[in-house]
Structure formats: structure tokens, C-alpha cells
Amino acid sequence: MLVSGSINMNGGARFAGNTILASGSSQGNITFNGATSTTDPTSNLQVISQGDLTYNGSANTRGTFLVGKNFTYNGSSTLFGSIDVKGNIILNGQATVTALGEG
């Protein structure tokens, strides 16, 4: 999914396989309330935002988050993957990030 503006999703959104969510505008933001279907290697989610990204992952998620501005991590789910940010990383709640080794 590629958009020139913002992406907002509800907590029931699930992503499987190779999925890309991207917002190309520095004025566009992503609010991620979903999760991947699994946390095994069959799930490969990439979320790219030129603006801010708010991660409210509703369940454990496997993916890579690339952010042009600030990344805010809310909630208590685990992110298996990486966060690359040009701005600030703000961790709220019981955020857990587990880096994945090269396969």
C-alpha cells in the first residue's frame, strides 16, 4: 500500500507474507494499530513513513519500520525486527523490540 498522505488502521488489521505500507509525504503520518499474522519468517512487513509513525501494535509483530521523523511505540506487544529513525524514538508502556539475526 503506497499513499501520498496518511495511513490509519484499526486494531483488527493483519498482514501476511511480504507487505509494504508506505507514506511518501513528510506531512503524512502512519498510525499502525495492526499486526502480522505470524512472527515467523513467512511474515515480512515493511512500514515506511516520511512523516511520523505511531506504533500501537495490537499483537506481536514481525517487521521493519523506517521513519523520516519520529517513532512513538505504545502498548505492550513485541516487535520482532528493527526500527530505523531520523528523528526521535519514544518508548511508552512495556515496549519490547527483539532484533532478528541475518538468516
Explain this structure to me?
With 103 residues, the protein is an all-beta fold. Strands 1-4-7-9-11-13 form a 6-stranded parallel β-sheet, with no helix packed on it. The chain starts with a strand and ends in a 5-residue tail after the last strand. The protein has strands at residues 2-3, 7-8, 14-15, 18-23, 30-32, 35-36, 44-49, 53-55, 61-67, 71-73, 78-85, 89-91, 96-98. 0% of the residues lie in helices and 49% in strands.
Provide the fold topology:
Elements: E1 2-3, E2 7-8, E3 14-15, E4 18-23, E5 30-32, E6 35-36, E7 44-49, E8 53-55, E9 61-67, E10 71-73, E11 78-85, E12 89-91, E13 96-98
Parallel strand pairs: 1-4, 2-5, 3-6, 4-7, 5-8, 7-9, 8-10, 9-11, 10-12, 11-13
In summary, what is this structure?
By secondary structure, the chain is mainly beta. The protein contains no helices and 13 strands.
